[in-house]
């Protein structure tokens, strides 16, 4: 899916809405969340959420809603918008280079003993699997798993990443953001600010119907079983 800077979604820039969906695609969204992210009043935040639900980008969360506070999750159409790119079309040659450099960075992460997570799986999907010469971007689903089964060592690695973040004067808006940092840090390194590269969680790909994909790293039998509605090419 392609979007542009000029497009609006529920009255807000499409890129801004996309970024919200990306940030919370594995979490829940509530009125206070939108108030903080968009700097809105509670009434404006409620209106934003209501319009997002009406458009089908969000759906009520039965698991996290309370009597006095409704919560929402990103829907399947919302995941599609979260994956949308605003970058200009690229050539297949450029896409191949971007993918090659990405896999090099995967090797850097997996060869290190400083990160608490490793890249377990990488799955390519989207326009790069077509026969087109001009492509939207390079879409990759990435799965991160703990790099060690030793809980003490895992915690030590996490604390090491927190210490490095503190030395860089990084501030976290919440405890959730701090706890998520070891994974977020890896995603940022893998993306390396590339506008041609869009990274997704493996769970996003599992929710897509009839998606064509190619496994670049990981257990092919396990991954194929996790995506019964997809097709390996």
3D architecture notes:
With about 230 residues, the chain is an alpha+beta fold. It contains nine helices and twelve strands. A five-stranded mixed sheet has the order 10-9-7-11-12, with helices on both faces. It has a three-stranded antiparallel sheet with strand order 3-5-4. The longest helix is centred in the middle third of the chain and has 20 residues. It starts with 7 loop residues before the first strand and ends with a strand. The model has no long low-confidence stretch (mean pLDDT about 90).
Strands, helices and their partners?
Layout: E1 8-9, E2 12-13, H1 14-23, E3 29-30, H2 31-38, H3 42-55, E4 58-60, E5 71-74, H4 76-82, E6 90-91, H5 92-111, E7 117-125, E8 134-135, E9 138-146, H6 151-167, H7 175-191, E10 197-201, H8 202-206, E11 212-217, H9 220-226, E12 231-232
Parallel strand pairs: 9-10, 11-12
Antiparallel strand pairs: 1-2, 3-5, 4-5, 6-8, 7-9, 7-11
Helix pairs in contact: 1-4, 2-3, 5-7
């Amino acid at each position: 899916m392609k979007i542009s800077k000029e497009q609006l979604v529920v009255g807000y820039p499409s890129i801004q809405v996309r970024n919200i969906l990306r940030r919370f695609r594995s979490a829940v969204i509530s009125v206070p969340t939108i108030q903080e992210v968009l700097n809105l009043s509670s009434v404006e935040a409620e209106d934003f959420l209501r319009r997002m639900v009406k458009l089908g980008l969000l759906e009520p969360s039965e698991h996290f809603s309370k009597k006095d506070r409704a919560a929402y999750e990103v829907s399947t159409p919302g995941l599609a918008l979260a994956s949308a790119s605003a970058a200009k079309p690229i050539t297949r040659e450029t896409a191949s280079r971007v993918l090659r450099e990405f896999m090099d960075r995967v090797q850097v992460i997996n060869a290190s003993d400083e990160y608490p997570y490793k890249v377990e799986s990488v799955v390519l999907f989207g326009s790069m699997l077509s026969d087109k010469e001009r492509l939207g971007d390079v879409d990759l689903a990435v799965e991160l798993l703990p790099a060690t089964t030793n809980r003490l060592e895992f915690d030590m690695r996490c604390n090491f990443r927190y210490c490095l973040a503190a030395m860089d004067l990084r501030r976290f808006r919440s405890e959730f953001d701090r706890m998520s940092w070891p994974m977020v840090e890896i995603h940022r390194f893998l993306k390396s600010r590339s506008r041609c590269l869009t990274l997704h969680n493996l769970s996003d790909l599992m929710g897509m119907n009839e998606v064509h994909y190619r496994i670049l790293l990981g257990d092919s039998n396990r991954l194929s079983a996790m995506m019964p509605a997809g097709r390996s090419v």
